[in-house]
């Protein structure tokens, strides 16, 4: 089985969790793929928080202008 997607990586992880064998290449690919996905999700969360903070500041300024 060639690990190319997160779904493939999760299947390999499930096999390992069930006590079944995975090849070393599959495990390496699984680790690299899941690590990349984790880094990407963290980066996305950081950016979304930054956007939310910016939007919140905009709403606060608008509310201040209309006297709320």
Present the secondary structure layout.
Elements: H1 6-17, H2 24-65
Which terms would index this structure?
mainly alpha, rod-shaped, 68 residues, single chain
Task: Write structural notes for this entry.
The chain has helices spanning 6-17, 24-65. By secondary structure, the chain is mainly alpha-helical. The mean pLDDT is 89.
Summarize the structure.
This protein is mostly helical and 68 residues long. It has 2 helices and no strands.
| H-E string | HH
Shape: rod-shaped
Outline the biggest β-sheet: none
Specify the number of helices. Answer: 2
Q: Return the structural class.
A: mainly alpha
Quick check: average pLDDT? 89
Task: Please give the number of β-strands.
Answer: 0
Q: Give the helix proportion (percent range).
A: over 70%
Strand portion, in percent?
Answer: under 5%
Report the span from N to C terminus: 60 Å
Report the radius of gyration as a whole number of Å.
21 Å
Low-confidence stretches: none
